[in-house]
Write a structure and sequence with these properties.
Strand order of the largest sheet: 6-7-5-8-9-4-10
Structural class: alpha/beta
Helix content: 25-40%
Distance between the termini: 62 Å
Number of helices: 17
Radius of gyration: 25 Å
Oligomer: single chain
């Protein structure tokens, strides 16, 4: 809600956020309503979805030396190659580099497609792009109704470079790829490593990052893939000279990368120091942050939950002998199954690694965390960001705005909170169970774990003082956790390449899933 001073009292109306004015003047919302009735104020909502013509601010953030060099390298690569991979650490200012590339495409009268993996991200980036490019920015994703999507579709189809009302920049999730572009000059795929770019259900099944490269080729457009933690496939393509490679190694404003600490929950459980799912270190750090009036993000990848059998004594998780992925527990068969090759074993009674009988099924979700936090930190204002809380059309926008305006102290979320969000006052990020990610039954589990932990760590300490990250794990010496602490992307990449070659996975091999169905089990066999 924005408030505007009535024309009678001011030669030029000024707008201010209602919540900010209430805080500054320390008045109730009832008093605010009275002033609106007396026509001193006017209240209206500004929507960040479909964009209306707005005042364009010409202010640009000037690029630092590292960004200038990166921009120059991208342009040099574009002379010979159609695709460039921009590998920049979290908060290195990749978005500003994109903005300069977009400006150039607009000057040439070309259309721009800016793909994001998550609808949650569009809220913040729309506001940044709208401040610079005004109503040239259109938004397209599945939360819009059909009328709104048709409006964007028609606008893209009739695009005329000289017409100010036409959307020249389309910002959207993977489905924006299928809009009817005619003058496409630049495609930006931000957070290109994200698995949400791949559509599994319903058909058609496609990987939007790869399809964007094909679209670029068809339209003669240049493609930029951006990420702080590129996918193994993209980085290998860059090494093989199929893509150009540009690296940004410094955070904008020379802000330090966060300090990453690990809490050993195996040891804390043994000493009976755990308070539900929270280690004593995490609770202490959260209390310190709240006292300093700072904010906290807690990450629990509930969406990636699969029942995992784990030994609480040594932290061992049974693996498939053929595929090197974690075995999934199937309760009704009392078996551990591999979802790739079909390998299965009966539920072990003792740990195959240390012989102990202390075996437990692991897994908990964001809802449980939110409930228990309220018990340990009753004063804190807690909110949850996951699929259940963001079903409504404007739910992302409202949650992000509330967190930005410090109406929320602790944000508990799934991987939605890990990607590209930019908050000034986050001093602590907690990863509640790294083992859930590390032992997910997927051949990309280690790569994904590195990416998710690095990305969520990048939300801490983006402005001013150095942020802190605490990772809770039963196996604090795990090589991936060590590589996250050291920001050792190349170490992770080289290890993953060796494993993928040895176990016949992409990018060295292709995987094909063949599904057979028949009502008669004998015929099926």
């Amino acid at each position: 809600n924005y408030i505007q001073l009535n024309q009678r009292y001011s030669s030029k109306p000024k707008e201010v956020k209602k919540i900010e004015l209430q805080k500054l003047s320390n008045v109730s919302s009832g008093l605010m309503r009275e002033l609106v009735k007396k026509e001193i104020f006017e209240i209206y909502q500004v929507e960040a979805g479909r964009l209306s013509a707005s005042e364009v601010s010409q202010s640009r953030k000037s690029l630092n030396d590292s960004q200038k060099a990166g921009l120059k390298q991208i342009k040099a690569h574009f002379e010979e190659k159609d695709v460039v991979l921009l590998h920049g650490v979290t908060s290195s200012g990749k978005t500003e580099v994109y903005i300069h590339l977009i400006e150039e495409a607009i000057r040439q009268g070309k259309q721009v497609l800016y793909l994001l993996p998550e609808i949650a991200l569009t809220t913040q980036i729309v506001l940044r792009l709208q401040a610079i490019f005004g109503n040239k920015v259109g938004v397209f994703h599945s939360r819009f109704n059909e009328n709104e999507r048709v409006e964007v579709w028609n606008n893209v189809l009739k695009f005329n470079p000289g017409h100010f009302e036409d959307f020249q920049i389309i910002l959207g999730a993977r489905s924006a790829l299928f809009l009817p572009f005619i003058h496409l000059g630049l495609v930006i795929v931000d957070e290109e490593h994200e698995n949400t770019f791949k559509q599994y259900d319903p058909s058609p099944r496609y990987q939007a990052r790869d399809a964007a490269i094909v679209l670029g080729k068809m339209q003669g457009a240049k493609v930029v893939l951006g990420s702080a933690t590129p996918s193994v496939e993209s980085y290998r393509n860059a090494e093989d000279d199929k893509y150009g490679l540009v690296t940004l190694t410094k955070r904008h404003g020379n802000v330090q990368l966060p300090e990453i600490l690990v809490a050993d929950i195996k040891e804390a459980t043994r000493k009976k120091k755990m308070k539900s799912h929270f280690s004593p270190e995490l609770l202490k750090m959260m209390e310190e942050c709240l006292e300093a009036n700072k904010q906290i993000i807690l990450f629990q990848n509930r969406r990636g939950y699969s029942p995992i059998l784990m030994c609480e004594t040594c932290g061992n998780t049974p693996q498939c002998v053929n595929c090197d992925v974690s075995l999934t527990y199937h309760k009704f068969k009392k078996e551990l199954n591999c979802h790739y090759c079909g390998y299965h074993i009966n539920l072990p009674q003792v740990c195959p690694s240390c012989g102990d009988t202390n075996l437990h099924i692991k897994g908990f979700g964001t809802e449980k965390i939110e409930e228990e936090l309220a018990i340990f930190l009753p004063e804190a204002k807690i909110a949850r960001m996951d699929l259940d809380t963001t079903r409504a059309k404007k739910a992302y926008h409202q949650l992000i705005s509330a967190f930005q305006e410090k109406q929320i102290d602790i944000l508990v979320g799934t991987q939605m909170v890990t990607k590209g969000l930019d908050f000034d006052d986050v001093c602590l990020v907690g990863v509640l169970n790294a083992d859930n990610m590390l032992h997910f039954p997927d051949f990309r589990a280690f790569e994904r774990s590195y990416q998710l932990m690095s990305q969520v760590s990048g939300r801490a300490g983006r402005k001013g003082e150095r942020g802190k990250v605490l990772i809770q794990s039963y196996n604090p010496e795990h090589q991936i956790i060590r590589q996250v602490i050291d920001s050792d992307f190349m170490g992770m990449y080289k290890n993953e390449l060796i494993d993928k070659r040895n176990f016949h996975y992409p990018p060295f091999y292709r995987l094909i899933a063949i599904t057979l169905r028949h009502r008669d089990k004998q015929k099926l066999h």
